[in-house]
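Thread: cytidine-5'-monophosphate complex, take 2
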Amino acid sequence: MRKNRRVLVGITGGIAAYKSPDLVRRLMDRGGDVRVVMTEAACEFITPLTLQAVSGHPVHRCLLDAEAESGMGHIELARWAEIMVIAPGTANFIASMANGKADDLLTSLILASEAEIAVAPAMNRQMWQNPATQDNLQTLRRRGVRIIGPAEGGQACGEVGLGRMSEPDEIARELLGDGVPKLLTGACITLTAGPTWEAIDPVRGITNRSSGKMGFALAEAARDFGAEVTLISGPVALETPSGVERIDVVSAQDMLDRVQEHIGNTDMFIGVAAVSDYRPVLSAENKIKKDRDSMELKLIRTPDILRSVAEIENPPFTVGFAAETERIDQHARSKLVSKKVNMIVANNVAGKEGAFGNDYNTVTVHTHDKSMSIDRNDKYGLSVKILEIAVSLWKKQ
Ligand code: C5P
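Output below.
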């Protein structure tokens, strides 16, 4: 079963609160699992019952609510949320956030959570322009809070200008990245990601600098395209995107075994992992002592997972990656042919600007007919473009 993205909608006391039920609905339409927290002032503008009916869950209002604490208490709620969006965010509430206050449930949740936080401000245009508000927003941006909007136009107070809350559909799209087309609904995608670790002894091994970020971003994008995603990952320090089935592996052989278990149900296989090409012939049972001046390590080739998938009878649509430090496109094109895959994504891993560990990259996609460069983008943005190309080629088959 796919899980949804867990979104906590915080409603504060502004007239734009009348748009909040619509926001909840739009988030749910995009696969969000939504819970609502309202401040006391918000309840002056719209009733909790409306939000309960729309979200299908009780609305959380009080910090010290014995009943709620025995169900989903405020700390669990803070842990539960993957995204918190404050909409509308009044000037007063934004000031509280900027000052790190925790004087009600919503401010406390914001302080207690590791969720991604976004605010959709809504206020009169003078309040928006006020340097105090702008300074507060700057503080929030510096802390990584995403500010969505506001929009320009007529305001409830009769004035015209910047300060209206952005439209719910726009906020939902920004939050759930669901502007992407559902081109893979019903398809099963298997990906490999990260490095592998080939043990020399129980504490040492051969590995590489792959962070896993590209594979995880692709898994997230494939999920947003509507696919059922299995992500087979080597050792990385990344969180599993929600709704994605993750299988952790260590060595190339483990990775191959798990890929083979899943490949029968796979429509598209994307090999993003930087699989170690060699492993020690022998892996010592105990830690090797440094009692010799030199030692030799005999290595043997690991199985080529991507090649083995492409070689099966009726293979899935296969996409490989080529991480190179020189003559990138030439090497990538020769892999496209020799590994008999449908598509290769070439990236440069040389130097500090290289792909490994970075959040941004540029890549070139090679198919048997043509090559296409994708401009510098974050790895999620690149993933969306890579998948669009892959899907269009796959559908033509
Ligand atoms: O041959 P090279 O390692 O450059 O090929 C890279 C592509 O092949 C990547 O898609 C990588 O995930 C895949 N690969 C693999 N198994 C290996 C080596 C590479 O699946 N042993």
